[in-house]
UniProtKB/TrEMBL annotation:
PROSITE patterns per record: TONB_DEPENDENT_REC_3 (PS52016)
Location in the cell: Cell outer membrane
Protein name per UniProt: Outer membrane receptor protein involved in Fe transport
Organism, scientific name: Paraburkholderia silvatlantica
All copies of domain TonB-dependent receptor plug, residue ranges: 74-187
Amino acid sequence: MIPEKAAGASRGSARRAYATLVASLALGALCAGASTLAVAQAQSAADKNAPGPIVLPAVVVVGTTPLLGIGTPLAKVPANVQTVNAQDIATQHRETLTDFFAANLPGVSVTDAQGNPFQMNLDYRGFTASPVLGTPQGLSVFVDGVRVNEPFGDVVNWDLIPAGAIDKIQLIPGSNPVYGLNTLGGAIAITTKNGRTSPGGDIDLSGGSWGRKSAQFEQGGTFGPHVDYYANANITNDNGWADHNASRVRQAFGKLRYTDDDTTLSISGGGADNQLYGSQTIPRSFLDDPKQAYTFPDLNRNSVGYLTLSGDHFFNDNVELSGNAYYRHLRNENMSSNNNTDYGSVDAGGNVDTLQGTNVDSIVTTDSFGASLQLTLLGKLGGMGSQLVAGVAADFANSRYVSSSQDAAFTPERATVGIGDFVQQTDAKTRNANYGIYLNETLAISPQWTLTLSGRYDWASARIADESGMQPLLDGYHTFSRFNPAVGLNWNPLPAVTVYATYNEGMRAPTAIELACADPAAPCSLPNDFVADPALQPVVSKTFEAGARGRVGAQTTWSAAAFSTTLSNDIEFVSAAGRTQGYFQNVGKTRRQGVELAGHTAFGPVGLSLNYSYVDATYRSTWTEQSPANASADAHGVITVRPGDHVPGIPAHAVKLRLDYAATAQWSIGTNVTWRSGVYAQGNENNQDANGKIAGYVLVDLDTRYRVTKRLEVYANVTNLFDKRYASFGVLGRNFFNGPGHTFDGANPVNEPFVGPGAPRGFWVGLHYAWD
């Protein structure tokens, strides 16, 4: 998680050691990652000027561990690492970080299950980082070395990450064990800006479609030779393109650092306070008006405050020590409206259930804290250049989960009206403790060959306690542990070509929310209540990857990778009655395998990036579940999932094109074209429902920038240029609103797919003013 550096760019006495390391480990490391977009785009505009001195490209150094450290030259990293710089994000002016990923990075897609742009599920190679409780998570996310997968459910709240303060993002694929728990399909390492590398300030104002208004401010600088500072704040108000999906986002971040020849110490902190309404998925029959919500209101309130202390110190030319410590407080409140799927049923006493719906209020509060320490040793091992990294990490969290339910009826507009008071359903406390110890050895066998060996031992515990006195079955204590190894080999036959192969393993421990809803005899309605906690097995991933990357001339980069990740004891939320109740269970093996191809080139003022990804995600074991809305279900509503059936929600094919044109020295134009193939809907895990697939789509976005003066820039964006109607997510369900004008008719529910519609065409303009 270290920024790019030119060889020899380290501080003080360590500068000589770093230059020596690069010389011994990085012969041939002149290739840049194919996903490094903005550098080549800037070069394409500069090519129009008179030729200047020949400048060799910098050696690209990427992080190979969660903590800041010396890093490893990209040519010696056995993985298809993708890098995004701050300028890449700023150039396109996209509303959210997940939207940028989906439009630009190979293997990445997003799905909209919540109906809010700040609450997207991000998928990479078929693995998810989602803000939705109960979603099986497969990606780990770090900000400045701190894991931001929230301990309660491992969810990732993308709206809490200050995109404007990001200096660099690295997407590390595979089950790299060094990144610890939850790294099944990859890790996302985010580094924030500082005042020394991001001096000066700017203000950015924008507005446009759906009443969206945004203001962002940042300022960085130095106090004398050793102290620098950075601050960033963002305010966004958005009425939403749909009837009930408005957003209010408030973010702030700050950092203060001390640096000298051998030492860096920093303290950073921030917070966010966001209100995000969602329009949920809607029945396919509602698509005559895709703006309408199925039921409402649905509100997600996220607030967070965090503080991080970090530092690193070079004791001499060969020894570096780095570490961090953090505290994080999160409060999440979710208020949701739901129809009663048991409407019309008859209980043992002959009573008919006539309740139309419910309102559910659930609150999660979490205090998490932890620390990490990492030692880097440079030297020789058996006459070979060696970089040994050893680290330890400890993370703790105390969470409280309270949920309450209120009976409700629906208005003709499908809004819920509460009946009576809220009644508490669950009051539980959880405590998580995770410990890890890891090693990573990089050996320069020869100038052309590099061997990487790494491994990590993780021990995780989850304690669950019932605080209400009414659910003693919640009480439980679970521990999980495993050693996960990795090995990689790099070959640099030419200075601008790297070939690699790797094998690695990872683990995901079951979360408290999964452990507390794992009893087939007592299904629950997540995230609404807990019921019991029989044991689940941890998920284990095993990944093979092989690939190559390189550079052709000064303007062209390319990469190709093939991968296969097999999960053992994968965990699924298995429906027990309809799609609203169920339980988590281990379902055996699943597999994600595929290829990634990417390239960038420039022709004078034109920059072109093109990538393709293929992901074949399948179940490899047989299991059964309730899915009564699936047309192929038996008389009891049961479907059988067999080896070879495709995992829902994961597109097999995706093509992404980015085109930049520097029309003049002041004016540039860009476009993104994204094609994504169709996906199976949830509930169609057996792939047998004829209506249980969501069609693919093509989206075209435009952006343009004009530099009025050295300090002032105006810009404009158009998303979904051709106003394409599409959906990114689907689930089979029962539609209870079949009366006139889609009003409640619980006696005649209809089985049909529910979809998450995408936003129509949108247009925004903005102004960016910068100062030194």
